[in-house]
Amino acid sequence: MRNCLWASMLAVVLVAATGATPQEQQAAEPPPPWAYGFVAPPGPGATPDPASMAPTAPLDSSTLLHLPGNTLAFTPAQIRDDFGPADWYPGDHPPMPNIVAHGRKPGIRACSRCHYANGKGRPENAPVAGLPYAYFVQTMADFKNGARKSADPRKPNTYEMISIAKAMTDEEVKAAAEYFGAMKWTPWIKVVETETVPKTRISVGMFLPLEGGEKEPIGPRIIEMPENPEAAEVMRDARSGFIAYVPVGSVKKGEELVMSGGGGKTTACAVCHGGDLQGLGPVPGIAGRSPSYVVRQLFDMQKGSRSGLWSDLMKPVVAKLNTEDLLAVGAYLASRGASAVPGSASLVERGKARFHAYGCFECHGANGEGTDQAPDLVSTRLTEAEIAVFLQKPSPDARVKGMPTVAASSPDLQALVAYVVSLKH
Ligand code: HEC
Ligand code: HEC
Ligand code: HEC
Hints:
This protein has helices spanning 3-19, 24-27, 33-36, 76-79, 98-102, 111-115, 133-144, 156-167, 170-181, 229-234, 250-260, 270-273, 291-303, 315-318, 323-335, 345-357, 360-364, 384-392, 396-400, 412-423, and strands at 65-66, 73-74, 189-194, 196-198, 200-203, 206-209, 215-217, 223-226, 242-247. It is mainly alpha-helical. The strands form 4 sheets. The chain has a 3-stranded mixed beta sheet with strand order 3-9-8. Strands 1-2 form a two-stranded antiparallel sheet. A two-stranded antiparallel sheet has the order 4-7. The radius of gyration is 23 Å and the shape is globular.
């Protein structure tokens, strides 16, 4: 860690700290149950529920299962093997160190069993790919030293994570930190703003849609579920992503808090987490990660159940945020991909709004179907990169006819490109 980075982060903390008030109001708020994998908040004296971690039935070790387009085959027992779970995509990651691939008997289940071999993790555990080495090592020490617990005392797998950290040697921690840190984070969560969500059940901390497709009001919750429940739950397909349903308006609200501090409520996150929110030096990336995980951490830090060596830097950041603010922050961060995220619902949606704001529709039609002023965009032959260039520097013909230019530095560029790409067939 370079000194100047710490110095600038500390300066931010001091400025923010002078405006922070005691958290009496937040102290009364229970953990948002949806972020911890429960239906209702914990009652007084709640204890971990180990039964919710145990497999429901002995696993089938004879039927071979296949994923479409994948030549490998595994049985359900192999898929969930605690000390060497199936790895569907060995080409997606570097060779795994033993601790990641197999863990160590008896107490350390393989990291890949919960976090997946590619480190993408799931809402009920944590995304660990792309974490800075120094942060990874420090947070493992925090788990070990009792500085990182869950604010919801029922959450069973946090206890397991703690006992794993306690059992690991320094060498094993280093090997895991190097392995996961060598992979870049890539987004795999679609954020959808909505008033209603599929009704769900909870299986070992994860929300799964009920058969029958019935819906219910989303209320003040984020409901994160696999895009393909069978692929995620039965096959544990580490390429099968997630959908985060969030209340209407929460992405915009979160954007204000994250990007500009919401008028003094918090500190702009980019100061410490980097301009693209993908991390800066030892500070971890926060964009494009599971919103359930992010909200859980923010709440844990606010309550002090996560109070590691570096968590103090986050204290003033969360001090004045209520649970609804945390939800909005989680929704916005999840909607932010790595760099360009074509196909991400929220980016495409923002692009669609800009398409109207810029008056693109006047020439290209409301849905890019074309008018007598300009060609349709549905059958464009341009690639994503060429579209980006065209918007910055339209052809002479387009310019003469009045097509606006979009500055390379404009945050709208990426969204517009994503929207035009989404129109292509
Ligand atoms: C039983 C499932 C499970 C296994 C196995 C497991 N973890 Fe975890 N891990 C978790 C959970 C759950 C969390 C998040 C805890 C929370 O949200 O309270 C976590 C969080 C983490 C974090 C924090 C991520 C962050 O961004 O701060 C790291 C690092 C981590 N695990 C490393 C490992 C390593 C290394 C191994 C293998 C030796 C491992 N885990 C095995 C469940 C597991
Ligand atoms: C003054 C510097 C600073 C600012 C400003 C800051 N953070 Fe952090 N953040 C950190 C540090 C350092 C950590 C690591 C904390 C730890 O190790 O416990 C962290 C950790 C986190 C984590 C946990 C990451 C993980 O992998 O578990 C989240 C989530 C987070 N910050 C979100 C935010 C958000 C959202 C904002 C803006 C509203 C923000 N941070 C602003 C320094 C900062
Ligand atoms: C005043 C009319 C007008 C407006 C407004 C306009 N365009 Fe165009 N656009 C054109 C014309 C005319 C062309 C065809 C130019 C040519 O063939 O050289 C074009 C071409 C394009 C192309 C290239 C299509 C291809 O396959 O070659 C893209 C992409 C495009 N526009 C996107 C946009 C976007 C995004 C906006 C809004 C930011 C926009 N346009 C606004 C008139 C317009």
